[in-house]
């Protein structure tokens, strides 16, 4: 019954076009949108409208969340929903936006972070870091990173062991992702330069989030240097970003 009312509400939202000022914000702040073919652009626009309407948006440390912030964040997040059917990050309850890097005192140690995803459905983001994601070719995108964590947690745990439809793909992921993670750890420990962000060596959950960033931001280099990992992510996300890169 709940899904009936949810879908009816969504049809009502999707019947109204994204306002022109917000469309221009999307084109400017998420410029890779302009490279997409029409059907994918329409999917992005659907995701943006639903994410803006359904999620609870909160500004932190005195920040007022604006239409630009909502449109930009939703626009980046929508890329990992391009082939996700009718899932629109339903498990995300609140998106919290900070005016700068977040600083926390953890047992007397100051910790700095630009984003987090919580298992209770919260996603927090630093607005300046979100704006840096406009460069869709540098391998870094805090929005994709944190929302990838959310997808990872749909099985109940953010541990990097994401779920595939076919058991063969699941087995391949467990094997190949495990090997790729260990190789990244070795490369980082040895001080070697890596295509994947070294932060992915922290643990398997960060590895999946970092690999997702690279998949969407630098797909061609990833396809060349990590072909098996790229192929599995293409299966998982049901999309090939080399089509627009």
From TrEMBL:
Gene3D superfamilies per record: Collagenase (Catalytic Domain), Glucose-regulated metallo-peptidase M90, N-terminal domain
Cited InterPro entries: MetalloPept_cat_dom_sf (IPR024079), MtfA_fam (IPR010384), MtfA_N (IPR042252)
Name used for this protein in its record: Protein containing DUF980
GO function terms (MF aspect): aminopeptidase activity; metallopeptidase activity
Gene Ontology CC terms: cytosol
PANTHER family named among the record's database cross-references: MTFA PEPTIDASE (PTHR30164), PROTEIN MTFA (PTHR30164:SF2)
């Amino acid at each position: 019954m709940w899904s009936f009312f949810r879908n009816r509400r969504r049809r009502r939202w999707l019947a109204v076009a994204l306002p022109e000022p917000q469309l221009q914000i999307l084109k400017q702040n998420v410029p890779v949108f302009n490279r997409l073919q029409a059907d994918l652009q329409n999917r992005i626009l659907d995701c943006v409208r639903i994410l803006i309407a359904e999620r609870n948006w909160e500004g932190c440390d005195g920040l007022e969340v604006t239409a630009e912030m909502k449109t930009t964040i939703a626009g980046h997040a929508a890329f990992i929903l391009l082939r996700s059917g009718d899932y629109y990050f339903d498990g995300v309850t609140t998106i919290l936006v900070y005016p700068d890097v977040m600083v926390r005192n953890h047992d007397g140690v100051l910790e700095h972070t630009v984003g987090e995803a919580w298992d209770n459905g919260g996603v927090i983001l630093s607005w300046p870091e979100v704006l840096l994601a406009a460069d869709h070719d540098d391998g870094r995108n805090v929005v994709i990173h944190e929302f990838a964590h959310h997808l990872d947690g749909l099985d109940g745990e953010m541990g990097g062991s994401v779920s595939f439809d076919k058991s063969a793909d699941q087995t391949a992921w467990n094997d190949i992702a495990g090997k790729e993670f260990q190789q990244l750890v070795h490369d980082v420990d040895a001080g070697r330069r890596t295509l994947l962000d070294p932060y992915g060596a922290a643990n398997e959950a960060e590895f999946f989030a970092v690999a997702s960033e690279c998949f969407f931001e630098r797909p061609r280099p990833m396809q060349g240097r990590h072909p098996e990992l790229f192929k599995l992510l293409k299966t998982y996300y049901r999309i090939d970003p080399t089509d627009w890169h």
